[in-house]
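Section 5: illustrative case.
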C-alpha cells in the first residue's frame, strides 16, 4: 500500500471517510491539555480539524496529495488558518521530529511490522516528555486475510506489540479491545477497536 495506492483510492471517489472525527480520539483526548499534536495518516482531515477546534496546534501528515488537498479545503471552510500544518510524508520511512509532540495520534494507520521497528520507534520518539501516544486499530478478530491482495492482519502492529517496546519511561493507561462507538464503515464488519494509550513520563 504505497503512495500511488492511497492516492488512487482517494481519487476513486468524492469522499472516502465520513468527515467525522474518530470516536477513540474524541473519547481519549477530551481530558488532555491541548498542545502540539501529530495526526499520523490524517486522510481527509477530520481528526486534525477536531483537534484544532479544541485548541491543539496540529501537524497532519499523509502520503496522499489528494487527501491533503481535501483536508486543506475543509480547513478553509471552517476558517482555522494556521491551526493545522498539512504535510505530505511517508512516516514509515521518514520519522517525525523527535520529542516534539504532546500527542501522537495513530488512528487506523496501517503500520506493518518491520525487523527493527524503525517506523514505530520513530513515532514513539516523537512523543514529548509528559506527552501521550494514542493508537487505535480494528480488532484483528474482525479482519480476514486476503492473500490475493497480499493482506494479512497479522502483518500489522497491534497494542501488545507497542507495549513490548516501551521502557520504564512510559506509563500505559489503556490497552484493551472495545466495542466501536461510531458507525461501522460501509462494506465492513468492524465491530470492535483495539485501543492503546500511553504517557511518556517527564
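Designed sequence:
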Amino acid at each position: 500500500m504505497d503512495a500511488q495506492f492511497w492516492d488512487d483510492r482517494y481519487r476513486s471517489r468524492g469522499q472516502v471517510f465520513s468527515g467525522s472525527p474518530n470516536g477513540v480520539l474524541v473519547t481519549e483526548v477530551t481530558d488532555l491539555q491541548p498542545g502540539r499534536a501529530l495526526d499520523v495518516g490524517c486522510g481527509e482531515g477530520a481528526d486534525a480539524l477536531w483537534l484544532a477546534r479544541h485548541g491543539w496546534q496540529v501537524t497532519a501528515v499523509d502520503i496522499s496529495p489528494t487527501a491533503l488537498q481535501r483536508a486543506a479545503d475543509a480547513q478553509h471552510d471552517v476558517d482555522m488558518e494556521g491551526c493545522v500544518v498539512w504535510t505530505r510524508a511517508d512516516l514509515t520511512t521518514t520519522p517525525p521530529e523527535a520529542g516534539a509532540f504532546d500527542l501522537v495520534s495513530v488512528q487506523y494507520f496501517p503500520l506493518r511490522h518491520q525487523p527493527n521497528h524503525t517506523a514505530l520507534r520513530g513515532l514513539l520518539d516523537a512523543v514529548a516528555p509528559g506527552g501521550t501516544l494514542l493508537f487505535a486499530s480494528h480488532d484483528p478478530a474482525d479482519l480476514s486475510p486476503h492473500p490475493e491482495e497480499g493482506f494479512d492482519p497479522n502483518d500489522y502492529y497491534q497494542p501488545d506489540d507497542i507495549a513490548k517496546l516501551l521502557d520504564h519511561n512510559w506509563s500505559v493507561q489503556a490497552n484493551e479491545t472495545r466495542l466501536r462507538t461510531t458507525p461501522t464503515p460501509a462494506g465492513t464488519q468492524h465491530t470492535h477497536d483495539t485501543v492503546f494509550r500511553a504517557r511518556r513520563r517527564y
